[in-house]
Write a structure and sequence with these properties.
heterodimer, A: mainly alpha, D-Maltodextrin-Binding Protein, domain 2, 2 domains, four-stranded mixed β-sheet, about 5% strand, B: Rossmann fold, four-stranded antiparallel β-sheet, elongated
């Protein structure tokens, strides 16, 4: 037992002390934030802003009405052109306009409207058209309201709408939108951790085999101890990284809450985290995430360890042998999407119970609420099966590992490896 | 007192009878040579002694008691033929880790590592990584790691390969010193001149079976061919006699094979009677190399796969 601890310690410390671990841990959230803020900033910078000249022959589009909408939104300014019309049509671009449109005298506020042409010397996307369209429609609504004699009080009455919100009667605070986001985040995080750290186990085992240290070590400890020590050590590394990220989120939340006025994105993010706290059972999600992270990791990484023990220096062997295992992880992610859009469907239920896909699919369902969406029996069964599953894969992998780690030369096939596993 | 006793040990693989009924005894404090051509089953035998493999049949007794890999690894040091260390790990930490895996406490391990590093002049290596070492340096480190926990039984698989004569001597001296202090050393190699120099006792395995067992001296005696070398001042023109047959001449040296029923004295008196003056007379014993080749000859150089039926 003491020897397993030594192995775990070595595996853990050599990895955590590596620069790549520190860089990865710090960089991942920074990249993530950079992505959110960066895209937000770019989107803001690129908001369409067209300057339009409006030539009105109908007399409905008055300066007063245009001023009113321009006041509401300073972008996409509309100017009423009433003098030197022919001159303007020729030289609008030089005067700082992006285009112009003409409202014919025949326009009828009661009738149907054909589309208008906005004349421009460039091609603009749909995104550029919409704000102008909205502004013109606001003016048009004003014109119609005034013609119908609808005053502000009546407008208020007309503007009311029905909004639909799905409320889970068993769980008043549930919020499907946030649960979907958290579900995706949990599922993808699980997917990345399983694949990344699983392949670390595989490469670690191969390294021990090809550098022939394995033979030295297994003359001191049992191969099973070496394998288990490695898997647990790397699991601890993954857990450490995850905990650091969680700590990071809490720090951002608290700092954001205390400084408050920091403005824009910061307050928005604090608000988002706040709404996550109120609508999702955070301790439950965190607790089950850690359980499924470890369970799923043991399940997959022991298989990766078995493959690592079977291959030699050639990394291509690793790819072809680990393909079936990697496919299982990718398949789980494929099951996750329908499971999130309908977390109560039979597919979602069974995919979250079967051990190979349960770490990803169950983590995608849990944010929707336990026990409302995921009954306790499902969670319990899924957890029990995952434990049974990883005990099986570890047993199976240990048999292959024991033979493979001291076997050099030809790459074994899956068939041969299974034969190793079932040999006495 | 035998430190290690193997009784009818067997280990069969799918296509090989790797070890097929081998028994042997190794006395405490001896330097024991385990010889055999490539693929004879030496490594499998060693892996069973180190607890890496379980034998299919037979028994291993360590100090007269049944071998228990779990606890007895503390008493065994094994240096595999293919050296293995973590390339990216610092040398000091690595030695400490491997010593602790053998069951030493941290402080105990630390003290012993420092002693050995001083003895082998390796103090400056502590914070270096294995990938910074030359092959020979790595070899020295591997040796230190093998003997660090002061095992009773040390198994060295080709310990001198890749070492320059100075470092080879350094390790050879350590092997003698350890043997003098009562450590038993199993030395696996196919370099016969080293075996002749170092080992007291040898076992030769081939195709999974033991084909020779004894002290170096007795083995040589067993395989001698009654060959003698006689150096004369002047070689007589005709040599005809009933005592021996001439096998070869080299300058003024005759190689003779004494016939059955005759003794060395007969040969000497023959030359004295002839009036030749003798400069030297000595028995030619076969080298282990000759014996090895003689015994193993005829075995295909690569071991063939065979069907194993239990």
């Amino acid at each position: 037992m003491n020897k397993i601890l030594l192995i775990i310690q070595r595996e853990y410390l050599t990895r955590v002390r590596k620069k790549t671990f520190i860089i990865g841990t710090v960089l991942f959230p920074l990249l993530y934030l950079g992505l959110i803020f960066g895209t937000g900033y770019i989107a803001e910078k690129n908001q369409p802003d067209l300057h339009i000249g409006l030539i009105d022959y109908s007399g409905l589009f008055t300066q007063e009405r245009i001023n009113k909408v321009n006041l509401g939104d300073s972008l996409n300014k509309i100017n009423l052109i009433s003098t030197d019309i022919e001159q303007f049509k020729l030289h609008y671009a030089e005067n700082g306009f992006n285009g112009y449109l003409e409202i014919p005298a025949t326009i009828d506020w009661k009738g149907k409207l054909d589309s208008f042409n906005m004349n421009s010397n460039k091609t603009y996307g749909i995104g550029a058209k919409v704000p102008i369209e909205n502004k013109l429609n606001r003016i048009w609504t004003d014109i119609k309201n005034d013609s119908l004699g609808i005053d502000d009080a009546k407008k208020e009455i007309l503007s009311s709408q029905i909004n639909l919100k799905i409320l889970n009667v068993n769980n008043q605070s549930a919020n499907a939108g946030i649960a979907t986001v958290i579900g995706y985040v949990c599922g993808f995080l699980m997917y990345f951790i399983l694949l990344l750290y699983g392949s670390q186990v595989m490469m670690g085992v191969t390294e021990e085999k090809t550098s022939r240290i394995a033979e030295v070590v297994v003359s001191s400890v049992k191969p099973f101890q070496l394998m288990l020590g490695k898997i647990i050590g790397i699991a601890m590394v993954a857990l450490t990284q995850f905990m650091l990220w969680i700590a990071f989120i809490f720090i951002v939340y608290n700092v954001g809450k205390n400084t408050g006025h920091a403005g824009g994105n910061m307050t928005a993010m604090v608000g988002q985290i706040q709404s996550v706290f109120t609508s999702v059972n955070v301790p439950l999600v965190l607790g089950t995430f850690i359980f499924y992270l470890l369970g799923g990791f043991f399940f997959y990484s022991s298989l990766y360890a078995a493959i690592g023990s079977a291959i030699n220096e050639d990394m291509r062997e690793a790819q072809s042998l680990s393909f079936p295992i990697t496919m299982l992880v990718i398949f789980s992610i494929a099951l996750m999407t329908p499971a999130i859009s309908n977390p109560g469907s039979p597919l979602a239920v069974w995919a979250s119970i079967v051990p190979f896909s349960s770490p990803i699919v169950m983590m995608a369902r849990i944010p929707f609420g336990v026990p409302t969406t995921v009954p306790w029996w499902q969670l319990g069964l899924s957890m029990a099966l995952l434990i049974a599953g990883f005990i099986c894969t570890t047993w199976f992998a240990a048999k292959i590992y024991k033979t493979g780690i001291l076997m050099y030369g030809k790459k074994p096939s899956w068939k041969e490896m299974i034969k190793w596993a079932f040999r006495k | 007192m035998n430190i290690l006793e193997l009784q009818n040990l067997k280990k069969y693989f799918a296509t090989q009878k790797a070890v097929d009924d081998i028994s042997l005894q190794i006395p405490k404090g001896s330097i024991f040579g385990l010889l055999g051509p490539n693929g004879a089953g030496k490594t499998t035998l060693i892996r069973m002694i180190t607890g890496i493999f379980y034998p299919d049949a037979g028994q291993i007794l360590l100090n007269g008691k049944k071998f228990d890999p779990e606890n007895d690894v503390r008493n065994i040091g094994y240096m595999p033929e293919e050296r293995g260390l973590y390339k990216k790990m610092k040398i000091g930490e690595q030695a400490l880790y491997l010593a602790q895996l053998k069951g030493l406490s941290r402080t105990e391990a630390m003290k012993k590592i420092q002693d050995w590093f001083v003895r082998f002049d390796m103090q400056s290596w502590w914070n270096k990584k294995v990938e910074d070492l030359s092959k020979g340096m790595g070899q020295k480190l591997q040796f230190v790691i093998t003997v660090l926990h002061e095992p009773e039984l040390i198994i060295l698989d080709e310990p001198f390969s890749g070492l320059d004569p100075v470092n080879a001597n350094l390790i050879k001296d350590e092997i003698y010193r350890l043997a003098q202090n009562g450590t038993t050393i199993i030395f696996s190699t196919h370099r016969m001149e080293q075996v002749e120099e170092i080992c007291n006792q040898i076992v030769l395995v081939n195709k999974g079976k033991k084909i020779l067992d004894g002290t170096v001296e007795s083995v040589k005696q067993d395989f001698k061919e009654n060959l003698f070398s006689i150096q004369l001042e002047e070689i007589p023109t005709t040599i005809v006699n009933p005592f021996f047959e001439l096998v070869g001449t080299h300058k003024n040296e005759l190689i003779v094979k004494i016939n059955q029923g005759h003794k060395a004295n007969d040969v000497i008196s023959h030359f004295i009677n002839q009036g030749s003056s003798i400069i030297s007379f000595k028995e030619i014993l076969p080298s282990l190399n000759d014996i090895f080749i003689k015994l193993v000859e005829g075995t295909p150089s690569a071991r063939q796969f065979q069907k194993v039926e239990d």
